[in-house]
Amino acid sequence: MNSSLLLSAATFIYALASVFYIGSFSFKKQALARFGFWVIVIGLVANTCGILLRWLESYHMGYGHAPFSNMYESLVFFSWTAAALYVFVECKYKESIIGVFVSPLIFLGIAYASFDPSITSKITPLIPALKSNWLIAHVITCFLGYAGFALAFGFSFMYFIKPKEAGARSLFAKLPEWDIIDELTYQMIVFGFLFLTIGIITGSVWANSAWGKYWSWDPKETWSLITWFIYAIFLHLRLMRGWHGKKLAVVSIIGFLGVLFTYFGVNFFLSGLHSYA
Asked: Where is the Cytochrome c assembly protein domain (predicted)?
């Protein structure tokens, strides 16, 4: 057994969890959602073991670095953070139906890493600038922030599909109450915002140690800052202006589009110090 096999298994397990959650939503069968939760927990265990084994494999190959150094590893870690955060949220709120809006995101992250032919799963040595303990702190905090934003993005769609008056037989009758949707979205964005802030700070310290300056307006730095401001606007509108509901959901969705461009757009369309492509 090697890390690639474990992570491939985690990919298919997350896919199965998504099928259970979507089936629960479509057929209004709560039992399917309960199966989906335990399947996603199994996927999280496989994902965890795969990351740890990959870390160990890098030591055996003589590289000895945390598995956060390329696009494959970062996408695998994103799925892990999103799955771990989702498991916590479902245990806290007991609203299993929300899994239908999150489990596909968890699956798509690791599936893209596993199946895109342009992404290699090969373990490679770090370039000198990445040989720093700040790498672990920076990547972990940034991706915890991304996980919070991903969950908020999924939850935001509930605002647009939950009718104001849902009949007992409606497909949308099992969606959480409006105040729960609002609280879930807000808490995930607060979580994501705090960790993204820490990620930007640790990244600045790392940049100073690697390149001699805290900020260089690298494309990923710039877009991370833009994303930070979008979520800062979200928090301002909610806390100071009293916004709720669909208007804030739109800001949440725009914010996650900023996250996606920060990660994928910068890697593929812009060149810089952070580019994986």
From this structure: 69-274
